[in-house]
Amino acid sequence: MPRTLITGGAGFLGSHFCDYLLAKGHEVICMDNLLTGSLGNIAHIKSSKFSFIKHNVTNHIKIDGPLDYVLHFASPASPIDYLIHPIPTLKVGSLGTHNTLGLAEAKRAVYLISSTSEVYGDPLIHPQKENYWGNVNPVGPRGVYD
Fold first, then answer.
1. What is the Cα–Cα distance from 10 to 51, expressed in whole angstroms?
2. Furthest-apart CA pair in the chain: how many Å?
3. Mind listing the domains of the chain with CATH numbers?
4. Helix, strand, or coil here: 113?
5. Could you tell me which residues come within 8 angstroms of residue 4 by beta carbon, excluding any fewer than 6 positions away?
6. Amino acid 65: pLDDT
7. How many other C-beta atoms are found inside a 10 Å radius of the C-beta of residue 105?
8. What percentage of the chain's residues is helix, strand, coil (to nearest 5)?
9. pLDDT digits (tens, 9 = 90+) for 83-128
10. Is the pLDDT of residue 43 over 90?
11. Of 20, 24, 28, 21, nearest in space to 3 by CA
12. What region, left, alpha or beta, does residue 119 occupy, with left being phi > 0 and alpha being psi -120 to 50 degrees?
């Protein structure tokens, strides 16, 4: 049975991935500090293959036992949230990514990081294609997420 860590697992995207992977037979470890995630998003999960850890990924992450996958979905992703929490957003994008990559390397796990189209900045085209370089202002209010 594959064992998967999902950071930001109590958020919108992460909670749906918890459901999906549990249905596929994974053991799922959901990690979230609940800054913008909600226990209500995972309250319906009643499985012995599911566990929740309240933890901020900007701090060192220790998971006992093997991991097959690390899915890094932790971050305030809407402008409303990341403008209220600019420093935590910067930290989860840098330190959180560093910590989850280090964990994946140590566990020899497959790694996936997810984001939203917000990383393109204030886009000049909609929808954005993968070859679009964006319209990012690194010192503007959106810069903490971009």
1. 11
2. 46
3. 3-115 (3.40.50.720)
4. strand
5. 21, 26, 27, 28, 29, 67, 68, 69, 70, 71
6. 98
7. 11
8. 35, 20, 45
9. 898 889 889 999 999 999 999 999 999 999 998 767 777 778 878 7
10. yes
11. 28
12. alpha
Burial (CB < 10 A; 0-12, 13-18, 19+), residue 1, is exposed
Tokens of 145: 């997420």
Would you name the residues annotated as active-site residues? Answer: 145
Instruction: Report the percentage of the chain scoring pLDDT > 70.
Output: 96
How many Cβ atoms sit within 10 Å of the Cβ of residue 139? 5
What is the Cα 2 distance to its own chain's centre? 19
Distance of CA 136 to the CA centre of its chain: 21
Whether this prediction's pTM lies above 0.85 is answered by yes
